[in-house]
Design a protein that fits this description.
Layout lengths: L14 E13 L3 E14 L4 H11 L19 E4 L2 E4 L12 E5 L6 E3 L2 E2 L2 H9 L9 H5 L9 H5 L12 H5 L1 H5 L5 H12 L7 H8 L13 H5 L6 H16 L33
Parallel strand pairs: 1-5
Antiparallel strand pairs: 1-2, 3-4, 3-5, 6-7
Helix pairs in contact: 2-7, 7-10
Length: about 280
């Protein structure tokens, strides 16, 4: 049997060093006063913080709780405070932290359900409040689409970066304004409001205005930039918020050009269907 080797020729299952993990523990029923538990973990090359937590649960303490799903930086479930910075546990390799001690805490600016599990309900409430979906005057077309809306490559690029949000909550955990104003919408929701405002297929800017530009909206941001530093997907919420401020000021002076919603793309009536391409399935909703 051929044993796995790293790119440097070393065995990938070789223990590089032991790292002490200090984990903040909390449970309303059994640990009402938060405490710190320490665990010694043998770390191998390529081992992530999520792998280390799995080792602790399987070998040292089965009661340890955290949230995870995809293990590949897509779902955003495993966000936590790692050595004083909000990160995804599955995207953070232990050896790259270059530390003999790793401190793990639940994300700040959220309530804690248990151990490293934050309560993200407020994140999704704020996200829903800005109506993060396509709004149009021709509601009949949205309910019963007869085709696709036309959009150019340039129009796509105006909002594409801001569409990469995975709702992990790291930007909210890093934001100093969220820490001092729990009603502030925060970088995640505001970025998604801007994402749909910039979408050429959308006509919902006025419907999002009261929430996004209200007392606890976009102008509560003082541009610390911490949200963009923490974002694991390069969404750059701080940039989106500044663009949103610019557009709001333009609109107040009547300088913001009104957007005409993208029309339906013309149907292709000529040509033959490619061989082997099946028909689209019937709608289920």
């Amino acid at each position: 049997m051929i044993e796995p080797v790293s790119t440097q020729g070393e065995k990938t299952d070789e223990i590089v060093k032991n790292v002490k993990f200090k984990v903040l523990r909390f449970d309303r029923d059994t640990i009402p006063s938060p405490r710190v538990d320490s665990f010694d973990v043998p770390v191998k090359k390529g081992m992530t913080v999520l792998d280390a937590l799995q080792y602790i649960k399987e070998n040292l303490d089965s009661t340890l709780s955290w949230r995870f799903s995809c293990r590949m930086g897509v779902c955003g479930s495993c966000g936590m405070f790692i050595n004083g910075f909000p990160r995804l546990a599955c995207n953070t390799q232990v050896l790259e932290l270059e530390a003999d001690v790793v401190d793990l805490k639940p994300l700040p600016n959220f309530d804690t359900i248990k151990d490293l599990v934050p309560d993200l309900a407020v994140l999704f409430e704020k996200h829903r409040s800005v109506r993060p979906f396509t709004l149009r005057k021709d509601i009949a077309e949205l309910d019963n689409p007869s085709g696709e809306f036309f959009q150019t490559t340039d129009e796509l690029q105006r909002y594409l970066q801001f569409a990469y949000c995975i709702k992990c909550g790291l930007c909210m955990a890093a934001c100093p304004t969220v820490a001092t104003d729990r009603r502030y919408l925060g970088p995640q929701a505001l970025t998604q409001a801007h994402r749909y405002n910039m979408d050429s297929r959308d006509e919902g800017r006025d419907e999002r205005k009261d929430e996004a530009l209200g007392t606890h909206g976009v102008f509560r941001c003082h541009f610390a930039g911490a949200c963009s530093e923490a974002c694991p997907k390069g969404v750059d919420p701080a940039f989106a918020i500044q663009l949103m401020k610019r557009d709001a000021l333009k609109a107040s002076f009547g300088l913001l050009r009104k957007k005409k919603a993208a029309p339906l793309a013309p149907k292709v009536t000529s040509g033959k269907r490619m061989e082997g391409v099946p028909d689209a399935p019937k709608r289920t909703v």
